[in-house]
Design brief:
Elements: H1 2-26, E1 37-43, E2 46-51, E3 62-65, H2 83-90, E4 93-97, H3 110-129, E5 134-139, H4 141-152, E6 157-163, H5 174-181, H6 184-190, E7 193-194, H7 196-206, H8 210-221, H9 225-238, E8 244-245, H10 246-258, H11 261-264, E9 283-289, E10 310-315, H12 321-324, H13 328-340
Parallel strand pairs: 3-4, 3-5, 5-6, 6-9, 9-10
Antiparallel strand pairs: 1-2, 2-4, 7-8
Length: 341
C-alpha cells in the first residue's frame, strides 16, 4: 500500500513539474498590464501613463504611485483583479511607471522620486485636465512617497489613498531587523543599485515557506482555468524584478527604516525642504492588510502631528493579496467609494 502511495505521489509530482515547466515557457506571452494605455511623457527611466477610459468619463484625475521595488502592473495583472481597470471606468487615471533604473541613476536621492518626479507628473496631468489638484493612490513604498509628496505639496492633492503604505517605521517587523543588520555603508560605497534579483531573494527570506506553499497550491488547483490564469500572470510579475537606485535605497534604509524621520517630521528633501506631516491637508483613506508581513498594521499609522481628515479600513489579506486575492475586489471598491464621495 505504501509503495502504491509513493508511486502515486511521484506521478502527481511529475504532472505538476510538467505543467509548471510548460507554464514557465509561456510567461513571456503575458502582458505587463492588461488595461489599454498610452504614454503621456517620459524622462529617462520614468514614464507617465494614461489609461483609456470610456467616453464621457470625467472628474478629478487619479494619479497612481506604485512601489519602486516592484513593477506597477501588480495593480493591473488580470482583467478580473485589476484596480486600474476599475479606476479608469470612473475617472481619468494616470500612473507613474518607474521603469528599470540602472547605474546611471544610482546617485539620485529618494526625494528625486517622491518630490520631483511626482510633481512633474502632477503638472502634466493638471495641464491636460485643466485642474489645480489631483487625487492620489500610493501602493507600498509608492504610498510612502505619495504621503511625503502630500506633505510637501498640500495644495496639489485632494484625496489620498494609502494602500498598504508604511509611514511609521517604529515597529516595522522583520524588515526592520533586515535594515538594522544590512551593511548599508559598504553597499553604498561599492554599488550603484540594489539588484532586483537580490531584492526578490530577500523577500523569499521573509516567508521561507512561500515557494513551497505556492507550489502546493498549484499542485492542488492547476486544473482550474481561472486559477491558472492568475497564477501565470503573477509568475510573470514575479519574474520581472526591478533594481533600486543606490542612493535612494540608502536613504530608504537609513532615513526611514532606521531613523524613522518621516513619522517624526524630521525628513528633508535633497533640496532642504521639510517633509512636514502637519502641513498635509488631503482627505485620506488608509487601506491596510491584516496579514501583511511587509507593511504591518502598526507601520500604516499616521503621525500624531498629521491633522488631515483620515479614515481606515483593514482588509483580511496579505500585502500582495490585497491587490489580487479574494478580498481585492473589496479593497478596490473601498478605494473607489472614498474617491467618488
Amino acid at each position: 500500500m505504501i509503495g502504491n502511495m509513493d508511486t502515486l505521489v511521484q506521478h502527481l509530482d511529475a504532472i505538476t513539474e510538467h505543467v509548471m515547466r510548460k507554464t514557465a515557457g509561456e510567461l513571456d506571452n503575458y502582458p505587463r498590464g492588461v488595461t489599454p494605455r498610452e504614454e503621456v511623457y517620459n524622462a529617462g527611466n520614468v514614464s507617465l501613463l494614461r489609461f483609456i477610459s470610456p467616453e464621457g468619463v470625467e472628474g478629478t484625475p487619479l494619479l497612481i504611485i506604485p512601489s519602486l521595488i516592484n513593477r506597477w502592473y501588480i495593480l493591473d495583472v488580470t482583467e478580473e483583479t485589476s484596480f486600474i481597470r476599475q479606476f479608469a471606468q470612473q475617472r481619468p487615471t494616470y500612473l507613474i511607471d518607474w521603469g528599470y533604473p540602472d547605474d546611471e541613476v544610482g546617485h539620485l536621492p529618494l526625494s528625486h522620486y517622491y518630490h520631483r518626479s511626482i510633481k512633474r507628473a502632477v503638472r502634466q496631468i493638471s495641464r491636460q485636465n485643466n485642474v489645480d489638484k489631483v487625487d492620489m493612490l500610493g501602493y507600498c513604498i509608492g504610498g510612502t512617497m505619495a504621503y511625503a509628496f502630500a506633505c510637501l505639496e498640500p495644495k496639489l492633492v485632494d484625496h489620498l489613498v494609502l494602500l498598504t503604505a508604511p509611514i511609521d517605521f517604529t515597529d516595522a517587523g522583520i524588515f526592520a531587523t533586515y535594515a538594522e543588520h544590512f551593511p548599508i555603508e559598504e553597499f553604498s560605497a561599492s554599488m550603484n543599485k540594489m539588484p532586483g534579483w537580490l531584492l526578490a531573494f530577500s523577500f523569499q527570506f521573509v516567508q521561507p515557506l512561500g515557494v513551497y506553499q505556492k507550489t502546493k497550491m498549484f499542485h492542488d488547483k492547476f486544473e482550474s482555468q481561472s486559477f491558472a490564469k492568475l497564477y501565470n500572470a503573477m509568475e510573470r510579475w514575479i519574474a520581472d524584478p526591478v533594481s533600486f537606485p543606490a542612493k535612494a535605497y540608502y536613504e530608504l534604509i537609513t532615513d526611514l527604516y532606521k531613523k524613522n524621520l518621516l513619522a517624526q517630521g524630521r525628513l528633508m528633501t535633497a533640496d532642504g525642504l521639510p517633509v512636514d506631516p502637519a502641513a498635509r491637508r488631503a482627505k485620506t483613506l488608509i487601506l491596510n492588510a491584516g496579514k501583511d508581513h511587509i507593511a504591518p498594521l502598526t507601520t500604516t499609522a499616521l503621525p500624531a502631528s498629521d491633522q488631515a481628515p483620515v479614515s481606515e479600513i483593514t482588509i483580511s489579506s496579505g500585502h500582495i493579496g490585497i491587490t489580487t486575492g479574494r478580498n481585492g475586489k473589496t479593497a478596490c471598491k473601498n478605494a473607489i467609494d472614498f474617491l467618488m464621495n
